[in-house]
Each structure stands twice: as C-alpha cells, then as structure tokens.
C-alpha cells in the first residue's frame, strides 16, 4: 500500500524525493501518514480537496480486501 501511495503522489509533485509514507497499525485500522515538501501541499490537496479525495478513494478501494479499515492522513 505504501508503494501505491508513493507512486500516485510522486507523479503529482515537484519534489518526488521528499515524498514519505509511514504507517501506524492498530487493532482495527491502519493509518498511512503522507508527508510531502511544503511547496507541494497545494498540489496534493487540490482545489477544494478534490485531489486528496481522489487519492483516498483509490487507496481505500485498493485496501478493501483487508480486514482492517484504512485511513490516509496528509501532514506537513
């Protein structure tokens, strides 16, 4: 799942080497935390959050086969 997130986001940003995805696994969910260069935040969020919503939709669909709920957080 980390590779999927990195692949999608790296194509959208100006600084692909600064894309970092970490994960926290809990008993009932997995939280992926995406961090990018400060100048790329607008490209990841998009107008009215549309790009972020699209990324989350793809990630949630890819993880639907797992038994745990998947969340994607975007941090600075």
UniProtKB/TrEMBL annotation:
- Descriptive protein name: RNA-binding protein KhpA
Which Pfam families does the record associate with it? KH_KhpA-B
Q: What is the similarity comment for this entry?
A: Belongs to the KhpA RNA-binding protein family.
Report if keyword Methyltransferase is assigned: no
* InterPro entries according to UniProt: KH_dom-like_a/b, KH_sf_prok-type, KhpA
Molecular-function GO terms, alphabetical: RNA binding
What does this protein's UniProt record list under function?
A probable RNA chaperone. Forms a complex with KhpB which binds to cellular RNA and controls its expression. Plays a role in peptidoglycan (PG) homeostasis and cell length regulation.
Record-linked HAMAP family: KhpA
User: What processes in GO biological process is this protein linked to?
Assistant: cell wall organization; peptidoglycan biosynthetic process; regulation of cell shape
The domain of life is: Bacteria
Note the PANTHER family from the entry: RNA-BINDING PROTEIN KHPA, UPF0109 PROTEIN SCO5592
Tell me the compartments it is located in.
Answer: Cytoplasm
Summarize the subunit comment. Answer: Forms a complex with KhpB.
**Gene3D superfamilies assigned to the protein according to its UniProt record, in alphabetical order:** 3.30.300.20
């Amino acid at each position: 799942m980390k590779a999927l997130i990195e692949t999608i986001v790296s194509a959208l940003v100006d600084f692909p080497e600064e894309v970092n995805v970490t994960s926290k696994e809990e008993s009932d969910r997995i939280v992926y935390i995406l961090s990018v260069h400060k100048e790329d935040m607008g490209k990841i969020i998009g107008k009215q959050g549309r790009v972020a919503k699209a990324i989350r939709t793809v990630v949630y669909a890819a993880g639907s086969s797992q038994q745990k709920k998947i969340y994607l957080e975007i941090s600075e």
